[in-house]
Design a protein that fits this description.
alpha+beta; two-stranded antiparallel sheet; 2 domains; 17 helices
Length: 365
């Protein structure tokens, strides 16, 4: 049994040892960039041996100038079909056709000789970002754009690796490195606002005898706290499969995770509240450590005389909004604090299909 090679490492070797020689031989002098970004657990560095069962294997992405893509894309694809080895580092380089019954998944398919049905994509930088984010690169990035880009996609753009870059792909990636300061402040304010809207409901449901409902609200609050932590550490959050995996890589996770686990596994609302109280106070201290507002109280308080411990009433959202100076972001923040697309919806189709973005953008116009 061959040893597992992380996909991002495999892709680098595949480009350097198999793809690049073909380009140098057949397309010498043509400028291009080579990378692995976008979809795939290997792009995030989270792939395991189980990942090899679909859409995984030796692959790469080549980016050409617009004029060269029109002229050379098909020729490059065909040269690679004819000249790539049928296997690389013990893995087939040949993929099955997309399976229409299984979300068009492709699997590694062993063959004895070529041509190879490879997964070396030949794209343009503009075309990739238009298809993946629904964004034209010659336009300025505006607050409504940032608020309608799913975090999971932004993370996969700045993750991965660039192996060769004559066309400025890395400079384009750097545009998406992280939210502008005032968009960041707005999103954190919205995160605190979400917590404030539900933190008292966890105890109220429990006190009414609805432990299942209380647990559900508690889990929602855990997710909102975790998402707020990603924001505080200026890290894009991935999609649900890797959300917890990425969270434990945050600096705060070692201290915060035990409290969050107590919330998740609590049998009663009172125990659940104890875990949330610990987590609230830790995250409030994290806020103060950022020094982006005046220090705020880090202790919980009763919810307007009711016996439910809350933290958002200490004014985190309001304090953050008061520090926003960009008029465009101020205008958005002066409405209800609905947050970006990841706070508005966790619907997979809306987050994955960029054709929704023009419609969603109108929410922030």
């Amino acid at each position: 049994m061959k040893d597992f090679i992380p996909g991002i490492k495999l892709a680098r070797k595949f480009y350097q040892e198999a793809v690049r020689p073909v380009l140098e031989s057949d397309f010498s002098g043509m400028p291009y960039s080579a990378a692995l970004i976008g979809t795939g657990s290997e792009v995030l560095g989270f792939d395991t041996e189980m990942s090899t069962d679909h859409h995984w294997g030796p692959r790469a992405m080549l980016f050409l100038r617009e004029s060269d893509h029109e002229y050379y894309a098909n020729a490059i694809t065909e040269s690679l079909r004819q000249k790539l080895p049928v296997s690389f580092c013990g893995y087939s380089t040949n993929y099955s056709e997309p399976d229409p019954r299984d979300h068009h998944v492709q699997h590694l398919q062993v063959i004895e000789k070529g041509p190879v049905n490879h997964r070396v994509e030949v794209r343009t930088i503009r075309g990739f970002f238009l298809d993946y984010l629904g964004f034209e690169l010659d336009q300025a990035l505006e607050p409504p754009d940032w608020l309608t880009f799913p975090e999971q996609k932004l993370r996969t753009i700045i993750a991965g690796a660039v192996y060769h870059d004559e066309l400025g792909l890395q400079a384009v990636r750097d545009r998406f490195k992280y939210y502008p300061r005032d968009v960041w402040l707005y999103l954190m304010a919205c995160g605190w606002n979400r917590i404030g809207q539900e933190e008292h409901l966890m105890g109220r449901a429990g006190l009414a005898g609805d432990e299942l409902g209380s647990a559900l609200i508690g889990s929602r609050l855990v997710r909102d706290l975790m998402r707020l932590c990603f924001l505080m550490e200026r890290q894009y959050a991935p999609y649900p499969k890797w959300f917890g995996t990425a969270f434990v890589q945050l600096i705060c996770a070692k201290v915060l995770s035990p409290s969050l686990r107590r919330v998740q596994f609590a049998k009663t609302w009172a125990k659940r509240e104890q875990g949330l109280t610990e987590a609230y106070q830790l995250v409030a201290a994290m806020h103060n450590a950022l020094e982006i507002t005046e220090p705020l109280p880090t202790t919980v308080r009763d919810f307007f005389g009711r016996p439910f411990k809350v933290i958002a009433l200490q004014g985190f959202a309001e304090a953050l909004c008061s520090r926003i100076i960009d008029p465009k972001v101020q205008r958005i923040a002066n409405r209800h604090l609905i947050g970006g697309i990841d706070m508005i919806s966790d619907n997979t189709d809306i987050l994955s299909d960029p054709h929704w973005r023009p419609i969603l953008r109108d929410l922030f116009a």
